[in-house]
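Async update (no meeting this week)

Hi team, since we skipped the sync, here's where things stand on the single-chain job. The sequence we agreed to prioritize is pasted below, unchanged from the tracker. I ran it this morning and attached the output directly underneath so nobody has to dig for it. Comments welcome in thread, and please keep replies under the output.
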Amino acid sequence: MSGTIVLPEQQVFNARVSAIQSRIEAISGQNRMAKLLNDNFRNWLANSSMSPLNLTLELDKDSNGLISGDEFAGLLGKMTGERPPDWVIELVFSFVQAKPETGIPLADWMAFMAANGLEVPEHLFAKKVEITGSIHTTAEEFVVNDEITVTVSFSDDVDGYSIKATESNSGQVEEFFTPLAEMDSPTGDQFMLQPDEEGLYQVELLHLGIRLSMVEMNILQPVEEEQEEVEPEVATHSKHEEEAHEEILVVDEGLGGFITELNNTKLKSEARALIEKSSAYRINGLIKSTATTLLGDGDHRNGTTVACDIGDGFVLEVMMKHGERLFEAGQPASIHAAPHDWSVATRRLICKEL
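Output:
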């Protein structure tokens, strides 16, 4: 029978008991009837010969894992000799932030009884699982505004995790939480970081406030390469060779041509100058992969970065605005976006959805 009741780890359960105790005190302090009801319930529990487990299993008559308003009304009927009015049930259910028509989950019901003095058997608690985890980046040194792929993994399923990035010199901290619904799987995830300032960053992987792993990243300002002055050569090419050379320098029109032009630049500043002059594009292609954009800015922060294959060997990254949309590898994409940056590390154009 005890298998029908599943309680969380004892530490988590105790935190829930404390929260319910505080709520009972707050409501009872403002409502004299609430205090009277809970005091009577506490006394009844103390004098009852039933264990918390047996009492709970008897109450949950339909074995659906919930204590309904009708089921609880039956218990109060035993206490008082008559069925209580609906407002009494609603008042008691408010202690655990539940509604009579929905019911109280058994874990919350057990926490409610523990908040009223009953001792819950230890064997009902889930065994504590020690979660270990790791965090990895593709390198240790990057350039400002480079998109950095970060991979995290866990030894067991998690309900979410946090990333804490601290700049060592200034002490500036940014922290982000990613719930399970936004992870690639319960045991792993991949996302993008895009630091906009140079510095030495400590990036920590946290689970339930505990640090599991850390990496250091040194973010540098891009170094402008000095171009050597080359003495002009005397043209000795034949007319045919000149035509062939001109043909090599021709850039196709459109987005593919723009990416080719960026790829031909030698300096980061040249790529940025081209991007500043560029117009927006309609990007049509196929999504190859997705990642969470954690350190984006504005509407793009905590959005999704998609790697989009537009054909002819061209792949680019698009930072999508944060929203409820879901993106998956293999989906076709049609995105109105503007060029934003050029990744030296991946030789990819980075765009922002408009």
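Quick observations from my side:
The longest strand covers residues 281-293.
Residues 253-353 form a domain with the OB fold (Dihydrolipoamide Acetyltransferase, E2P) fold (CATH 2.40.50).
Reply here if anything looks off.
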